[in-house]
Amino acid sequence: MPTALSVNLNKIALLRNSRGRDYPSILKFGRRALQNGARGLTIHPRPDQRHARYQDAYDLRALLEEFQEAELNIEGNPIDEFMDMVLDVGPDQCTLVPDQPGQITSDHGYDLDMDTETLKPVIEKLKRFDVRVSLFMDPVPENMAKARAIGADRVELYTESWAQAFMTPQEDQVYEQFRLSVLAAREAGLEVNAGHDLDLQNLAMFLTIPDIAEVSIGHALTVEALESGYDSVIRQYAAICSLSMESRPNKDF
Ligand SMILES: CC(=O)[C@@H](O)[C@H](O)COP(=O)(O)O
Ligand SMILES: NCC(=O)COP(=O)(O)O
User: Site feature Transition state stabilizer: at which residues (predicted)?
Assistant: First the structure.
């Protein structure tokens, strides 16, 4: 099965929130993602909801009714409010992430020697509600079996170190850490997702590691979309500004 792309809409939501109306609309961008080959949508509503908001999860759930095969993945730290929302929405997958409130972005996976007791009941509850559970984890092969032991269905490997190492002398060593982590996870009976700072440059090489079920990508994808469209949009604005008075549209009063 080819790797599924789940488009993370957090950065579209961040732009939207900067103005207070629904523009850009994450529903429109979510729909476009699915129409163009994404197999899922991801949001990561943080406690301050500065990116995606809890309401977005409900709206995207409704959108996904139109796309039978596509999945909704909700990421976050399982604080009470988050859990209430996730259980109410019923996404296909919930990715648990050990973020602190106010954290600028995710920067580490779970430490299962510390976090097991808090995670176990959360995982059990999500599974009782038929939500697939993925745990955000650093690429440490020895820790994969621990994720399975507490009931996770999947792990999401935190790929920041891959993005940093790509095209540097550390690339081979970091690649090997990920390859062995995927192998260990599969041997433990887990499926494997991956995400964070993946982009158009570093993704193809990363996906030479077999058996990655899903990648979720948002930040770079949004920047790359801006970069691809920026020059053309500037030209369109400049063309409007340079129209002579005679060629401007008529305004009848
Ligand atoms: C869990 C994870 O890897 C993050 O990459 C996250 O989902 C991205 O969210 P932000 O775009 O809000 O930093
Ligand atoms: N889980 C990772 C994710 O959804 C997107 O991360 P990024 O591409 O925004 O860094």
Answer: 156
